[in-house]
Amino acid sequence: MQGRSGTAKGRDLTTGPIGKTLVLFALPVLGANVLQSINGSANAIWVSHILGEASLAAISNANQIFFLMLGAMFGLTMAANILIGQAIGAADQNLARKVVGTCTGFFVLVSSLVGVAGFLLTPHILDLMGTPPDARAQAIAYLQVIFAAMPLVFFFSYLMMALRGTGDSRTPFLFAMVSVGLDVILNPLLILGVGPLPRLGIAGSASATLLAQLVALIALMAHLYRTNSMLVLRPGELKALAPDPTIVRTLVLKGLPMAFQMMVISLAATTMMSLVNGFGSVTAAAYGAAVQIWTYVQMPAMALGAAVSSMAAQNVGAGRMDRVEEVARKGVLFSAAGTTVLVVLLILAEPVVIRAFLPADSPSLPIAGHINLIVLWGFIPFGVAFILNGVARATGAVWPPLVAMIVALWGVRVPFATVLLPQWGADAVWWSFPAGALVMVALAAGYYRFGNWRSARMLPEAAPEAPVEGEAADTGLAMPVKEGEPATRSR
């Protein structure tokens, strides 16, 4: 059996150089995020160029629901990531077995229920959104296939986050490449019905996502069984799927605030879009182009935030708070430096970059340049806040980051733009972004410095379990120990 640093068991993030480990862990996460963004852009291009604007409107409406579901599931998968990381950091075999079994059973059940309910309710959901009549039929066809794929998407997402909790970010990146590559290739083939494939129209785009997720998930599961991963259960171990009430309660109570945070961000973005729309299509197009650039500017900080959360969770479980503090310091340094360099490069190359999203003669070009000159700098403090909040969440302190997000977005950004709109015009909207980011980093730094996150935990300390008769099934969760040493570290 491989040691803790082996790929089958993930990677021990409680030892070794922090800076190097953090960067090497974050790079595959960054790659996976970039792939997902490229995938979304490529799918939109295929649909718009092959089927037209009504079809693009249809998938835009359907994807609002899809992204909302993913945002809600993100909180639960992040909670699972932290639980697994803390259990592995503590080298607690019984806890790790319970966490993996309960999380697996929980995600299979929840994702199946969401998929069935969403499939049946699709027409009503789209009607509530006010989907344009000329796009409604296509949106229904697209979204029903997406809901059919939802159990695969959710479970795949859970496994990716769980692998990162074990310290392995490379495997999720490799299988994200498989999923994205298949999705991009299958989209035009299933839309048009190339060769023996059926012509499915807009449903072909959604079907490409379903097939890509299915193939990637099967391949990932085969890989996990082949490498004897701690995340899979053998036939004799299926009783581990029985839910542990404490772990389920923790998944929900700790995951929901993180899910709600994604919803808060989405609602704020929708509100800002409505304010921008009031200035006409030229300004709205400039804003849309700028947002495309912002997506990529945020990625380094978001990748580092995911790496920081996984590293911090393992070190919290191991009782290495000194390393948690160092992870936070290195994460802040790398995020600030990396985002600053990226912002400077984008501003210098802005005339070239923005033309990737707008025609060369577009009147929106100078407006987009003006927007970026104001807004891009705000992503530096935003990235720092993301790192500090990631460290806090890794201990189980999930509510303060949510409160800080609500204050920054709904207490500062939206009111700032709304109140100053009559005097400043569109500039009120642009300046509201750095204003909100500065408040967010101030709140995150204040809680990091003075808050009680260091004493928070995802699960209460449990007394050692009494041994049971017979030999427990080996799930691959046991941490190798030297002869004569206990299998579980005590603190």
Automatic annotation (TrEMBL):
Region (Disordered), start-end ranges: 466-491
Entry-linked InterPro entries: MATE_fam (IPR002528), MdtK-like (IPR048279), Membrane_Transporter-Flippase (IPR052031)
Transmembrane segments: 21-45, 65-87, 99-121, 141-161, 173-194, 200-225, 264-287, 293-312, 332-358, 370-391, 398-416, 428-448
One GO location term (cellular component): plasma membrane
Membrane topology: Multi-pass membrane protein
Molecular function in Gene Ontology: antiporter activity; xenobiotic transmembrane transporter activity
Keywords for the protein's UniProt record, in alphabetical order: Cell membrane, Membrane, Transmembrane, Transmembrane helix, Transport
Ranges of Basic and acidic residues composition bias in the record: 482-491
Pfam families found in the cross-reference section: MatE
Subcellular location: Cell inner membrane
The keyword Electron transport is annotated on this UniProt entry: no
PANTHER family in alphabetical order: MULTIDRUG RESISTANCE PROTEIN YPNP-RELATED
Name this protein carries in UniProt: Multi antimicrobial extrusion protein MatE
Species of origin: Phenylobacterium zucineum (strain HLK1)
